[in-house]
Recover the amino acids of this structure.
């Protein structure tokens, strides 16, 4: 880990801590201060208030908590699905592998946002904030499996044909033990890499969905929902601190990318 | 070899389209409001008339018959009817597809030109830190959501198509730079330099040309990325394209329209990927000979 990556890790840790401590640092994200509507930054409200009198800093911290903590949850779900589907296909081979490969091709040929919109439209649009959070991140987790599954399938296939697994099989090791003791430990680095790579993708997807009005419902804040304020250009010009969610989002995704930086040799 | 690749691509296209059609039909079938006819709400109608209207949709309740009707309709070019916009889907697409395709063409070509150009410059110009500015720019473009990029372009009064180019650019740049740098480090390159060939000739004949088939593979990805980015960019920049149509369809829960758009985009992405694979197959014998 070089110095830049260490700095990125420190920034991410600080953002995660601030998000976790949102309750201590700021009052409620939905409390409306009717005496301070659209107030500029002050000692009471370091990022001012929005047009409903809500503390922007509190909303940013709670929004960060939603976006930064739930994106890994969605990434975990998609990695588990990818591991299950891709791993089974790679291990079993034959017809199952061909079916899974066709399904992966189908999913990868559908542009991500179009697929998200199609499935999101199928689900209720006017839901409670908690339900909208669940729907958004479950959707991201359930639809994001295809790209990691392709890599995990190839990795499992290669492991399944390896000498040590052949020896273990020849020694009469049962399938369950083969998978648990020999296959999974060797797949773990690949699964971890796919998990970490999915996080920035899901953060950006939530932001895009939020800006399109298909993400998390008000009054619950998320980065996507907070970015909707930026559509009012004249207000942004007069109140540049409204850009704080965008700056924080770009900083967090940049830090994640710095940490994950690898020499990518394949278009995926 | 080319025929084999062509056949493989055609088979893949057919399978994916068939599966996509079934998936789309399932979404439409499961969507809210399916099988409900507004005429049934008319209080002037007698129970017999209502029953007759209801019977018109009876075949649709059988999911297998519904799939068959849906796919047969698609095969005949009947794309269905948009409930939210009250117009045939084919007409909506005929109006909006050219707008999107023009934006996408500019975006993809701009992104590929910028990404490939900067990658070529970075690999050619072997000065420490030469890749700093392109790396920072590509990192920044990767970290900004397409919708925010579209807002920035809207604020500065630029066309949204260039925002698509900035979405495509970092992927093309990173991939091309890695491919070209790996090719530059191949043992045949110092051998060519030792023979006294000019740097330009070494770079063109021994780095770029052998890497070209691998670089062509990025075309499919660029098209897919551009289509994905077109939704937020067309919505924010108010461009009357297919991306904006998909967004409206999602908000109005117009699933027949949304499914057709998604399948059309999938088809275009697949064709772009297949063309890239075919170009690769056509190029491979030449590069092997080289």
């Amino acid at each position: 880990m070089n110095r830049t990556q260490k700095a990125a890790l420190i920034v991410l840790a600080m953002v995660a801590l601030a998000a976790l401590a949102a309750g201590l640092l700021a009052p409620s994200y939905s409390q409306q201060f009717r005496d301070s509507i659209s107030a500029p930054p002050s000692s009471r409200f370091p990022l001012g208030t929005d047009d409903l009198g809500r503390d922007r800093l509190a909303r940013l911290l709670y929004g960060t908590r939603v976006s930064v903590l739930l994106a890994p949850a969605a990434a975990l779900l998609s990695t588990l699905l990818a591991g299950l589907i891709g791993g089974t296909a790679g291990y079993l081979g034959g017809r199952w592998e061909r079916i899974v490969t066709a399904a992966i091709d189908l999913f990868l040929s559908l542009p991500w946002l179009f697929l998200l919109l199609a499935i999101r439209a199928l689900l209720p649009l006017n839901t409670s904030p908690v339900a909208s959070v669940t729907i958004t991140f479950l959707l991201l987790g359930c639809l994001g499996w295809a790209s990691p599954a392709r890599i995990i399938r190839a990795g499992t296939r290669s492991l399944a044909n390896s000498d040590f697994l052949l020896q273990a099989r020849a020694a009469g090791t049962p399938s369950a033990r083969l998978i648990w003791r020999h296959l999974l430990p060797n797949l773990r680095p690949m699964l971890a890499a796919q998990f970490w790579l999915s996080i920035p993708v899901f953060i950006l997807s939530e932001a895009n969905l939020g800006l399109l009005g298909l993400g998390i419902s008000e009054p619950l804040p998320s980065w996507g929902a907070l970015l909707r304020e930026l559509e009012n250009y004249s207000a942004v010009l007069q109140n540049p601190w409204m850009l704080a969610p965008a700056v924080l989002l770009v900083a967090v995704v940049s830090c994640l990318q710095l940490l994950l930086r690898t020499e990518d040799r394949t278009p995926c | 070899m080319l025929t084999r690749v062509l056949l493989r691509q055609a088979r893949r296209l057919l399978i994916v389209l068939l599966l996509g059609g079934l998936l789309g039909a399932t979404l439409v079938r499961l969507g809210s409001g399916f099988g409900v006819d507004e005429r049934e709400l008319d209080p002037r109608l007698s129970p017999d008339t209502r029953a007759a209207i209801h019977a018109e949709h009876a075949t649709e309740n059988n999911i297998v018959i519904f799939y068959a009707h849906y796919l047969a309709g698609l095969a005949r070019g009947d794309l269905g009817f948009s409930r939210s916009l009250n117009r045939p889907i084919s007409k909506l697409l005929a109006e909006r597809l050219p707008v999107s395709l023009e934006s996408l063409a500019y975006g993809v070509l701009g992104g590929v030109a910028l990404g490939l150009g900067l990658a070529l410059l970075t690999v050619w110009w072997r000065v420490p830190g030469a890749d700093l500015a392109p790396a920072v720019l590509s990192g920044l473009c990767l970290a900004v959501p397409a919708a925010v990029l579209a807002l920035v372009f809207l604020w500065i009064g630029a066309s949204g198509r260039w925002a698509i180019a900035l979405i495509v650019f970092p992927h093309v740049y990173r991939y091309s730079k890695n491919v070209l740098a790996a090719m530059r480090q191949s043992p045949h390159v110092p051998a060519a330099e030792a023979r006294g060939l000019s740097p330009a000739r070494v770079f063109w004949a021994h780095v770029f040309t052998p890497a070209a088939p691998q670089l062509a593979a990025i075309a499919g990805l660029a098209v897919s990325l551009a289509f994905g980015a077109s939704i937020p960019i067309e919505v924010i920049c108010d461009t009357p394209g297919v991306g904006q149509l998909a967004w409206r369809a999602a908000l109005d829960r117009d699933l027949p329209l949304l499914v057709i758009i998604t399948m059309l985009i999938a088809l275009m992405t697949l064709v772009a990927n297949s063309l890239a694979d075919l170009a690769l197959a056509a190029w491979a014998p030449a590069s092997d000979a080289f």
User: Anything to note?
Assistant: The interface with chain B takes residues 102-103, 105-106, 108-115, 117-122, 125, 200, 204, 207-208, 211-214, 227, 230-231, 233, 236, 246, 249-250, 253-254, 257-258, 263-268 of chain A (CB under 8 Å). The two ends of chain A are 25 Å apart (CA to CA). Residues 263-268 of chain A have pLDDT under 50 and may be disordered. Residues 56-92 of chain A form the longest helix (37 residues).
